[in-house]
Amino acid sequence: MQPDLRRGCRPLTTFESLATSRTLQKKHITTFYNLLQAQDNEQIPTYTKAWENDLGITLTQSEWGKIFTNISKSSINTTIQESNYKRISRWHLAPTRSYRFSPNTSRVCWRCTTEIGSPGHLWWTCIIIQNYWEKICSLINIITGYELPTSPETLVFMLYPSPLAKSTRVLINHMLTAANGLIPTKWKQSNPPTIREWLAKVEAIRQMEELSHSLNGTYDKYVFAWSPWDKFIKDYKPDNMSTPT
Length: 245
Ligand SMILES: [Zn+2]
What we know:
This protein is mostly helical. The protein has a domain of 153 residues. 58% of the residues lie in helices and 0% in strands. Helix 8 packs antiparallel against helix 10. The longest helix has 22 residues. The radius of gyration is 22 Å and the shape is globular. Bound molecules: zinc ion. Zinc ion (ZN) binds next to loops. It comes from Pelobates cultripes (Western spadefoot toad). This is Reverse transcriptase zinc-binding domain-containing protein.
């Protein structure tokens, strides 16, 4: 049975009106085609502006486009993609949002207990999470030889300032996905994720990627992208003072 979209709480878009129309009009296909073409010029989601206000940054529509494209290609594994989409869309409940629903709750960050706990603060500006990001950057530099800018655009949104070799970008995407993906696992806890947890998370992603590429017949791509990680993890000693723990 066809759903009746007119019962929804918003007016139908032109596309929906045409799609649910019971009669075909002249140049119906052309109209559909033009509407689909127009999708490219649609406004980017409103949460992108919320991030910009929150973090005090400005990104162009093109840069947001690069962020969404990169995330859509960040992994052939949908659970990994999902964790990136949840972060970008501000899915996780920060104190500032829960305070709007329940004014008897605190708006303050549960880690530093001094600053307002907005999503931007929890993912980036909190002094405690900054320390975590410094260690992650240091390790990514050791593994790939690439010095990541310490900015939310790069570390939280995975927007890289200069062209990167594709295999390096793929590996950095996975390592940043792991770093960001661990933050919600410590939601409402005073301590940030540890490097030991990060290493385990990247290794778990590596295993999933190995399996997925193996099944998809693209094992050579997996080997090429992950070889710096394999070399690092083979030589890594947790008590080595030259690497963060
Ligand atoms: Zn804080």
